[in-house]
Design a protein that fits this description.
Number of helices: 28
Strand content: under 5%
Strand order of the largest sheet: 1-2
Oligomer: single chain
Radius of gyration: 29 Å
Keywords: Repeat
Protein name: Pentatricopeptide repeat-containing protein
GO molecular function: RNA binding
Largest sheet: 2 strands, antiparallel
Shape: elongated
Pfam family, one: PPR_2
Distance between the termini: 71 Å
Number of strands: 2
Organism: Acorus calamus
Order of helices and strands: HHHHHHHHHHHHHHHHHHHHHHHHHHHHEE
C-alpha cells in the first residue's frame, strides 16, 4: 500500500494494531506506533484506543497506561481497554482503582472486564459482590452472556457448585440467550462440579450443535467423571450433526479409549487423525502413546513416539510409563537416559514416578535407589507420596523390609494409606511377623482416621495369615462401624475386536 503511494488514514492503523496483538508482534506494533506520530495521527481517539489495547494485550501495562494518561480525549472504549488491559496483566488493584474512577456511565463491557478480573484471581467474594453492585447500579446495566461466562468460569475453577448453581438459575430466570460460549460454560461448570446429568441436560438444550465447543465440554466432562463409555457414545453422535472433531475432542476420546482398554476404537481414532490430515502435535501424540500403552499395544506406542517430530516432557513421560507398565523396565531406563542426554527437556516429578515405577515392575533395586537419590541431589526435586510409594513397593518386593520401614519413618510428606498397603503386603509375602506387628501399631495409633477400605482388607488378611483372629474380628467390626463394604470389580472389554461391542464385566 505504501509502495504504491496510497496514504493510510485513521481507519488503517486500528486494524494493523489489532493484527499485531493477535500475532504477538509487539516489535512491529512499536514501529507502526512511530509511523502514527510521523503522520500526525497520535491525537486520534480511535488509534489511541487501539494502541492501548495492543500494548495491554502484549503485557505492557505501563506503556498502555502512559498512552492512556496522555490522551487528550477519552471515551468508554478508552476506559474499557485500560481496565481490560490491567486484568489481562493480572494487575487487579490498578484495574479496580481505574474502574471506580470512570467518569461516565460504565457499560456492560467495563463491568464484565472487572468481574472477570476478580474471577481470574480467585477472588470469588469480590467478584460476586461486584456482580450484585451491577444489578442495582445507577449505570443501569444488564448483565449479558459474557458476564455470566465469567462468573461460571470462576466457579468452575474452584469447583464452587453452590454459587455456580445460583448463576445457572439466574440465567434461566432472566432468560439470557444460550449462545455457544454460555452453553459451554454451563456444561463445563456442572461437569467440573460433579453434576454430569445437569451438564447433559444443558447440552441437550443447545440448539446449534455444529460448533465443537459444546461437544468438547460435554465429552471432557464425561471423561473427567469416569464415564468413558458415555464420552465415546457422544463422540459417535458428532458426525450426525456435521460437527467436526478437533484436537480437544480427540485427546479426550483417546483418553476414554485408554480407560476402557478399547484398542480397536483407539486405533480408529488414530487412523482418523491421518485421514483428516490433522497435525499430530505433542498433545495428540501423547494421548495416542498413552492409549496404545494402556490398551496393551506397546509396540504401536513406541512407533508413534519415535515418529513424533517434537517431544515435550509429557510425551517422554507417557512413553516411560508405558514401558514401565508393560514390565520393560530396562527399556524405560534407557529411554530416560536418552531424555537426559538430549538435555532439551528437564525431567520433572512425573518423570521420576515413571522411572521408579519401571524399577519396581522389573525388580531393579539398585537402579531404583540410584534414581531416587538423583531426584533430590541432581534435580533438586522434592519427593512426593508417589515416589515414596514406588520405593517402598520396590524395597518391599525385594525383601529389604527394614530399609523400607526406615524410608517410611524418614518421609518428608504426610503418610498415606497406600504406603502402609505396600509395606504390609511385603510383610505378608516375606512372613515378617515382627515388622508387621510394628506397622500395625503405627497404623492404628497414627492413621486410624485415614484408613481406607484397601488397607482394612489387607490388615485383616495379614492378621489372618498370622493367626491373629481376635484382630481379624476387630478389623471386621471397624469396617462395619464405618459402613465399608467390598464392591465387585468391573472392567470393559471389546468383543471380536469391534468398536461397537463393549461388555461390562463384574
Amino acid at each position: 500500500m505504501l509502495r504504491q503511494g496510497s496514504k493510510p488514514n485513521h481507519y488503517t492503523y486500528p486494524l494493523l494494531f489489532k493484527t499485531c496483538s493477535a500475532l504477538a508482534a509487539i516489535g512491529t506494533g512499536e514501529q507502526l506506533h512511530a509511523h502514527v506520530f510521523k503522520l500526525g495521527f497520535h491525537a486520534d481517539l480511535y488509534i489511541g484506543n487501539s494502541l492501548i489495547d495492543m500494548y495491554a494485550k502484549s503485557f505492557r501495562a505501563i506503556d498502555a497506561r502512559r498512552l492512556f494518561d496522555e490522551m487528550l480525549e477519552r471515551d468508554e472504549v478508552s476506559y474499557n481497554s485500560m481496565v481490560s488491559g490491567y486484568v489481562h496483566c493480572g494487575d487487579i488493584r490498578n484495574a479496580s482503582d481505574l474502574f471506580e474512577q470512570v467518569p461516565m456511565r460504565r457499560n456492560v463491557v467495563c463491568w464484565t472486564a472487572m468481574i472477570n478480573g476478580y474471577g481470574k484471581e480467585g477472588m470469588i467474594g469480590s467478584m460476586f459482590g461486584l456482580f450484585l453492585r451491577l444489578l442495582v447500579s445507577a449505570d443501569d446495566v444488564t448483565p449479558n452472556a459474557a458476564t455470566m461466562v465469567c462468573l461460571l468460569s470462576a466457579c468452575s475453577k474452584v469447583s464452587n457448585y453452590e454459587l455456580g448453581r445460583w448463576v445457572s438459575v439466574f440465567v434461566d430466570v432472566n432468560a439470557i440467550p444460550l449462545n455457544v460460549m454460555l452453553s459451554t460454560a454451563l456444561i463445563d461448570m456442572h461437569s467440573k462440579c460433579g453434576d454430569v446429568n445437569e451438564a447433559r441436560r444443558v447440552f441437550d438444550l443447545v440448539s446449534d450443535k455444529t460448533s465443537s465447543a459444546s461437544w468438547n465440554s460435554m465429552i471432557t466432562g464425561y471423561v473427567r467423571a469416569e464415564f468413558p463409555e458415555e464420552a465415546i457414545r457422544l463422540f459417535g453422535m458428532m458426525g450426525a450433526v456435521h460437527s467436526k472433531p478437533n484436537e480437544i475432542t480427540l485427546v479426550n476420546v483417546l483418553s476414554a479409549c485408554a480407560r476402557l482398554g478399547a484398542l480397536e476404537l483407539g486405533r480408529e481414532v488414530h487412523l482418523y487423525l491421518g485421514r483428516s490430515e490433522m497435525d499430530m502435535n505433542m498433545k495428540l501424540a501423547t494421548a495416542v502413546v498413552d492409549m496404545y500403552s494402556k490398551c496393551g499395544s506397546i509396540d504401536d506406542a513406541c512407533l508413534v513416539f519415535v515418529k513424533a517430530r517434537e517431544k515435550d516432557v509429557a510425551l517422554w513421560n507417557a512413553m516411560i510409563f508405558g514401558l514401565a507398565m508393560h514390565g520393560r523396565g530396562r527399556d524405560a531406563l534407557s529411554l530416560f537416559d536418552w531424555m537426559e542426554r538430549e538435555g532439551i527437556h528437564r525431567p520433572d516429578e512425573v518423570t521420576f514416578v515413571g522411572v521408579l515405577s519401571a524399577c519396581c515392575h522389573s525388580g531393579l533395586v539398585e537402579q531404583g535407589r540410584y534414581n531416587f537419590k538423583k531426584l533430590v541431589s541432581q534435580y533438586q526435586l522434592r519427593p512426593k507420596i508417589e515416589h515414596y510409594s514406588c520405593m517402598v513397593d520396590l524395597l518391599g518386593r525385594a525383601g529389604c523390609l527394614d530399609e523400607a520401614f526406615e524410608l517410611v519413618n524418614n518421609m518428608t510428606v504426610p503418610l498415606d494409606s497406600i504406603i502402609w498397603v505396600s509395606l504390609l503386603g511385603a510383610c505378608r509375602t516375606h512372613c515378617n511377623i515382627k515388622l508387621a506387628d510394628e506397622v500395625r501399631r503405627v497404623v492404628l495409633i497414627n492413621s486410624s482416621e485415614s484408613l481406607n477400605l484397601g488397607l482394612f482388607l489387607l490388615l485383616g488378611s495379614v492378621y489372618a495369615s498370622m493367626g491373629w483372629w481376635t484382630d481379624v474380628e476387630g478389623i471386621r467390626r471397624l469396617m462395619e462401624d464405618r459402613g465399608m463394604r467390598k464392591t465387585s470389580g468391573r472392567s470393559w472389554v471389546e468383543v471380536d475386536e469391534s468398536k461397537d461391542r463393549l461388555l461390562l464385566l463384574e
